[in-house]
Amino acid sequence: MLKIGIIGAGMMGGTHASTYANIYGVELVGVADERVEAAQRLAAEHEARSYGSIEELIQVENPDIIDICLPTDLHKAHVLYAASCGKHVFCEKPIAMSVEDALEMTEACSAAGVTFMIGHALRFSPDYQMAKEIVEEGKLGTIGTVRMIREGAPPGWSAWFKDKSRSGGVIVDLGIHELDWLRSTFGEPLRVYAKIAEEGLPGEHAFVSIRMKSGVIAHLTASWALPDGFRSFLELAGTEGLMKLDSDDHKPIAVTRRGAGAELPSSSWESPLNRSPYEIELRHFVDCVRTGTEPLVTGTDAAKSLELALAALRSAQTGEVVTFE
Ligand SMILES: NC(=O)c1ccc[n+]([C@@H]2O[C@H](COP(=O)([O-])OP(=O)(O)OC[C@H]3O[C@@H](n4cnc5c(N)ncnc54)[C@H](O)[C@@H]3O)[C@@H](O)[C@H]2O)c1
């Protein structure tokens, strides 16, 4: 049985706690939060014990795994501490607030010989996995353009999201999901240009244009300007056809191909066996810890996704195109 300690009893801490409850061979032993009542509430729901800090939790429970669900600016210090105690670490995305910090965290985990994975959940979303496979199998021919949208209401449950020095804002906190998926499917970026609108809006609304080294042109809308609800959208246009994936549609995946036999993959959303991306993600992490294999999303990989998101933010702030070496 692998013992798990969750640090941060907020939105994602709660999601991870319920997810571990569905995974065989793991036990949530402790939850730490500076808000003691929040830690107590979540711990009680899962028959675990509550603590006020990572130090106390590790000292008393000696878990195998530390799962960090804290505001992004606190990831680094907690990952370094967990690694120094020899704990395997799962850390929510974005990995950190700077690429230097991300690489330092990755090196510390590697030196400590512990498994380190970042929660880029779209890599584990059945629909986005299917889209990646369709691209890799060449079913749409050569892809020319990629259009992506991720939009929702501002994350009103915690004030720290509004502080760009803590969350990075809508591109770094929200848009990084798509930017990471884009990199994992099409390789590294060549240049990026972005604009952010926030004046008069309840939240930020950003456009990001990316030229990939492969020649693919991508566009992302990342928004916290919706009054409520949530939507994600992906469109891939290739020489052989078009694919659309829209969370608002009843049948969210549609593929139209040139010529005969335009086969339509049935959406994983309709499958009774459909599991949440978080469950697939955390199962993968636990398997990696058990078998000593490298996770799908390493610290180095997450650092590259952060580098792209930060470059987009810099472009929006300076009005300049940012080109990668
Ligand atoms: N993968 C996803 O889909 C997804 C979705 C939302 C958020 N996130 C990420 O997850 C992380 C957490 O986000 P959230 O929405 O759960 O935030 P949250 O504000 O709901 O939860 C953070 C918790 O950390 C606690 N905390 C703050 N400082 C602390 C400290 N020093 N020691 C102990 N506890 C402390 C807070 O009291 C709070 O309970 C962020 O990095 C965010 O970007 C990921």
TrEMBL record:
InterPro entries: Gfo/Idh/MocA-like_OxRdtase_N, Gfo/Idh/MocA_Oxidoreductases, GFO_IDH_MocA-like_dom, NAD(P)-bd_dom_sf
Gene Ontology molecular-function annotations: nucleotide binding
Domain annotation Gfo/Idh/MocA-like oxidoreductase N-terminal: ranges: 2-120
Domain GFO/IDH/MocA-like oxidoreductase: 128-242
Gene3D superfamilies listed in its UniProt record: Dihydrodipicolinate Reductase, domain 2 (3.30.360.10), NAD(P)-binding Rossmann-like Domain (3.40.50.720)
Pfam families, per the entry: GFO_IDH_MocA, GFO_IDH_MocA_C3
Protein name: Gfo/Idh/MocA family oxidoreductase
Lineage: Bacteria, Bacillati, Bacillota, Bacilli, Bacillales
